[in-house]
């Protein structure tokens, strides 16, 4: 993401193919490069000085140590990148949202904004839309991409999800994309 324009390049997913490579061992190089790879992308970070390089490497190494997906890569159900963590999804999501400082990325095919993240709980602040609205109003940029349903096939009502989330932010920091846009050309649905 470009800090000045808020233009989004792409999110770098931490999946089974996530690796961090460095050319820092080559002392002849003046600028150290760090290459981050996942199953879809390769990203090269060019560090201008040793301090930047060490900061990046420390953060990336910490990410690799803490990420569940690096353990037992082939033992996950359906070869998913993430381990099954029973009874922890809502709690993990709540913690991640509350810890966000700059931006939050969410993608889902059927997202219910009114879902309670920690159950059972009567505290309305634990609802997904309320948590996201609070973080957006605190200055965190939130990007949500949801699947746009075919109205004659499914009634997921992604339009409701989009409006419910956008309306939770007084600052306009919640952006929602419904994808794909379905077109009909010559009676063929594309």
Automatic annotation (TrEMBL):
GO biological process: phospholipid catabolic process
PH domain: residues covered: 1-65
Alphabetized UniProt keyword annotations: Lipid metabolism, Repeat
Reaction(s) catalysed (UniProt annotation): a 1,2-diacyl-sn-glycero-3-phosphocholine + H2O = a 1,2-diacyl-sn-glycero-3-phosphate + choline + H(+)
A molecular function (GO) term: phospholipase D activity
Coiled coil: none
InterPro entries in the cross-refs: PH_domain (IPR001849), PLipase_D_fam (IPR015679)
Protein's recorded name: PH domain-containing protein
